[in-house]
Amino acid sequence: xxxxxxxxxxxxxxxxxxxxxxxxxxKCVQGKAVVNSISLKEGEGPFLDQARHVRNHGAGVVVMAFxxxxxxxxxxxxxxxxxxxxxxxxxxxxxxxxxxIFDPNVLAVATGIAEHNGYAKAFIDALPLIKQRxxxxxTSGGISNLSFAFRGNDVVREAMHSAxxxxxxxxxxxxxIVNAGQLAVYQDIPAGLxxxxxxxxxxxxxxxxxxxxxxxxxxxxxxxxxxVDLAWREAPVGQRLSHALVxxxxxxx
Length: 253
Known about the structure:
The protein is 41% helix and 9% strand. It has helices spanning 19-26, 44-56, 75-91, 119-133, 154-171, 191-201, 208-218, 237-247, and strands spanning 13-15, 34-38, 60-64, 66-67, 70-71, 100-103, 138-139. Helix 4 runs parallel beside helix 5 (154-171). The radius of gyration is 20 Å and the shape is globular. The model has no long low-confidence stretch (mean pLDDT 92).
C-alpha cells in the first residue's frame, strides 16, 4: 500500500480500536484514507487531538456515537453526540463535513431484554436527523451487530440484515459493514418471515421477539445456498437483465 497506489482505487479504511495502530496505519497509506474510528469517549481534548492528527494526514474519519457517558442507544442521544462531534470537527479541527462519517451504533435487538427492543428503530430514526443536524456528512453502521441474538441461524440473520439495510438506506444510510455474499434480496424474503423481522426492527409488537424466536427454532440451519440455477436464462431478455442486476450476476453481460 505504501509503494503502489493502484493496490486500491478507493480509500483504504484503517480500522482499529487502538489509537497507536491508527497512527501507524496513517503513515503507510498513500492518497486519502479513512480512519475507523474516533469518539468522544475520553472527552473533547483527546478527541480533538486525534481529529487534528487525522486531518494532518489528509484522511477522512469515522466517528462513533459514543461520549463520556457511553454509547448512544436512543435516537436523541445519537443525534446529540453526532452534533457535538460535528461542531468540534468543523469549527475547531478544520474538517470538511464531507470527510466525516458518523456511525450511530447498530445494536443487537431481540435479545430478550426489553430495553433493547427499540435499538434498530432508534438507528433508523436517527439517520435523517443526523444529516439534518450535520449537513454534508455520511453515515455508516455495522449491520451484523443487529442479529447477534441469532448467531448460528443464517436464515433469520440474512433476513434481518436485508430488511434492516433496506429501511436504513431509505432513511439515509450511505454505507454498512455486512457480508454481501450472505445477504438476501429484500423482495425475496418470504412474506411471513419479513413480517416477523420487521415487527422486531420497528418494535411494533410486545411479543415480536418471542414470535421471531419461535420461528427461528423451526428453521435452524444454513442460510442462502449459492446454488447455480440457470432457469432464469429462459425468461425474456428484460426479465433476464432485471434478475442479473438484482442478484449481481455478471457471467452473461
